[in-house]
Design brief:
- This protein has 11 helices and 8 strands.
- The chain is an alpha/beta fold and 268 residues long.
- The chain has one domain: Rossmann fold, CATH 3.40.50.150.
- Helix 1 crosses helix 2 and helix 2 runs antiparallel to helix 9.
Amino acid sequence: MTDYEGVNLEVHRAHSARMYDYFLGGVTNFAADREAAGKVKAVLPFAELSARVNRAFMHRSTRALAEAGLDQFLDVGTGIPTSPNLHEIAQRVNRSARVVYVDNDPIVLAHAKALLIGTPEGRTAYVQADVTDAAALLASAQLQEALDFSRPIALSLNALLHFVPDECGAHGIVEQLKGALVSGSALVMSHATEDFAPAEIARALQIYRSAGTQVQARSRAEFERFFTGWELAAPGVVPSPRWRPDGAGPHGVSDEQASVYAAVALKP
């Protein structure tokens, strides 16, 4: 099956972006995705809740940074644009906010037009690039045209780095991206961990690997290392529902049910 851009959607194979869309209650998923998601839920009953809590963290952190005055956002590992997406949150605070989405997946490209609908005053753009080639990503003409790298940028790496194992150079990639940003920029990250439900998360990760997706959970110490040299914003590294809860997201979520660390840091 191909979409209107001629992208092969490979609907017979489970895909992590469509599985995540399914967990979020989206409609951009197919039978193979739902079957694999069902296998994950069988070993990780709180998979949907974890995804929704992570999404709520993205909303809160984006809103907080926009309210603090940041008006440029670079979202790497965008995934399928389940609404409300990052640009919708940022532009509700500042209609002039500029947002660039980045993903390497042709399946995401098939839905990219939905990412480009923003406010008339602002700007939204989509870049097809791979985070494992940070140099090419940063050199993208679309990225350089849409964002002003002489001014602070909020770099969002939400639910991305657990798909970049150590052997792919995850920490070096993040350092390269951080190095391109000026003082006052922000790094927003969330990441799956085995710290709270090790057996359940390990089994869920194996299902992703069986579907052909590279994945690696990380401990708190491993996650904190991504923020080296930057100043963590309060409350620091915490399970995702504990990052500045506002009462709008799922309530009463335990650390085990989240099984995701989250944090925001600022470049001195």
